[in-house]
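Need tokens for this chain, all 132 residues.
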Amino acid sequence: MPSHARLKSSRIPRTLLRAGLVISAAGAAIAAGGAATASAAPAAAERPSDTGATASALSGALLNSAAGLGTIKNLPVNPLANTPVDPLANAVSTQIADFKPVSTTLLTGALSNGGAVKDLPLVGPLTKVLPG
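Here are the structure tokens for all 132 residues:
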């Protein structure tokens, strides 16, 4: 089959994949916080008409799950950081005439040095709204 007749496979942009990973990690942290609170809460069969216990369990679940989101800020993004096979350690730079040199280390430097989510150039300031 000629190459022009082949169907082009739709590729998901890398930024969407990373955003999905962050959202998945946040969901896992919320689920873990809710599970820890649910195991400490009294069983619903013991107090079927007590709405105060239900409200306190729900508020505890929300507080514990929000506290779990703070750990996402410190997760390392690049597992290959500071290793000889780190693909982000390769920097490209250029300088034209007397202008200031331009390099890719501004974008990839935080990742190749073992940075966490809070150290990323664009996402880092957004993580300040997370607790912790």
